[in-house]
Task: structure prediction
Amino acid sequence: MVKTAFITGISGQDGAYLAKLLLEKGYRIVGATRRTASINTHRLQYLGIEQDIEFVEFDLLEFTNILRVIERTAPDEIYNLAAQSFVGTSFEQPLFTADVDAMGVTRILEAIRTFGMTNCRYYQASTSELFGKAQAVPQNEQTSFHPRSPYGVAKLYGHWITVNYREAFGLHSSSGILFNHESPLRGVEFVTRKITLGLANIAAGNQDVLELGNLDAQRDWGFAGDYVEAMWLMLQQDEPGDYVIATGKTHSIRKFIEIAAPLYGMEIEWSGEAEDAIGIDRKTGKTIITINQAFFRPAEVDLLIGDSSIARDKLGWNCKTNFSELVEMMAAADQKRVGERQVNF
Ligand code: NAP
Ligand code: G4F
Result:
C-alpha cells in the first residue's frame, strides 16, 4: 500500500528535502502551498522533484481550508513544517507569528481530531529556540525551556499543544526539537546563506561589503538533508515522542566566516570589537565584513548545543555531514549560482 504524506511548508528548505526523501521511499506526496501571486517551487525544481508532487492550496491561518484539505487528502502522515520561521521578523510581527506558529498547529491537530483520524501520524517542527536562554549545556529533552523571541514563544505553544493532543486524545503526535540546519536551499536571510551568498558576490565583484549583526552568537549547525530523515524516523515509531536533533558541536558566526572565506580565496583578519568589528581580506586589504545594528535582536540566544543521544539510541539517527562539509557544500552552490547569474535564490 502506497502511503500518503501531507507536507506543509513544502516550498521551504525542509519541505523540499523531506519530499525528496519520502518520494525515494515510495510515498505519494501532497504538498501544501500558500496562494501567492507566484507559487514558489524553486527548491523543488532544484532537487528535480516538482513534477512528482500533488500541490494543494493551503494556509495555516484558515481553519476551514485546513479541514477541507485534510479530509480530501486522507494522509497517513502529516509533517507540519510551515511557519513564519524567521526569528528576527517575529519581533516585528509577533501577532502574525503567534497565529501561524502557535494557533496554526492547533488548527491542524483539531482537524485530525475532528475527523477521528486516529491512525494519522503527526510531526511538529519544534526548535532549539525553545531553549533560548539555555538553562543547561548541552540541551536535551529534559532541559527546561526559556524562549527569547516571539517566534520561540509561539513555537513553545506549538510544542506543548502537540504533547497535549497526544496525552489528551491519544494522537500519534511527535515533536522534533531540531537545532539549526542549513543547506544550499536555506533562505537567503538566514545567516549561513547570507554569508555564503554574500562572499560569492564579493568574490565575483558584484558587491563590496557584507553587513551582519552579532558575530559572537553560537549555533549547532547541521545539514538539513540529514535532519529530515529524523522527522520520518519519528513517525515510524510505535509510540510518539519528542526528540532533540543536533550535531553536538557549536560554532560562532565569526568561525563560520573564517572557515568559508578561504573557499573563495579570501583570508579574514578581524579588527575592533562588538559593533565596531570589521573583517578585512588580508589578500586584498579590503574591508569585506561590517556590522549593522539593524541585524541585532532585542533578545539573543547566545549558545545552542544539542545532545541527540536519545535520537541516536531510539531512532538509530545519526548526523552524517560535518560542519566543514556543510560550509563547503553551501559555498560551492552559491559560487555556481553567482557564476551562472541565477536569480531565483
Ligand atoms: P522555511 O524555509 O522558512 O519554510 C517555511 C515554509 O512555511 C514555507 O514553505 C512557507 O511558504 C510556509 N508558510 C509560512 N507561512 C505559512 C502559512 N501561513 N500557511 C502555510 N504555509 C506557510 O523554513 P525551514 O527552514 O524549511 O523550516 C521548516 C520548519 O522547521 C519551520 O517550522 C521552522 O520554524 C522549523 N525549524 C527550522 C529549523 C532550521 O534550522 N531550518 C530549526 C528548527 C525548526 P512560502 O514559500 O509561501 O513562504
Ligand atoms: O540564521 P539565523 O537567522 O537563525 P536563528 O535565529 O538561529 O533561527 C533559525 O534556527 C532556529 C533553530 O534554532 C529555527 F527555529 C528558526 O526557524 C531558524 O531556522 O541567525 C543565527 C544567529 C543569530 O544569533 C543571529 O543574531 O546569527 C546571528 N546573526 C548575526 N548576523 C545574524 C546576522 N542572523 C541573520 N539572520 N542575519 C545577520 O545578518
In short: Residues 148 and 299 are 6 Å apart (CA to CA). The longest strand covers residues 121-127. Residues 85, 87-88, 127-129, 179-180, 189-191, 194, 212-214, 217, 219, 253, 295, 297, 300-301, 304 surround G4F (ligand 2) (CB under 6 Å).
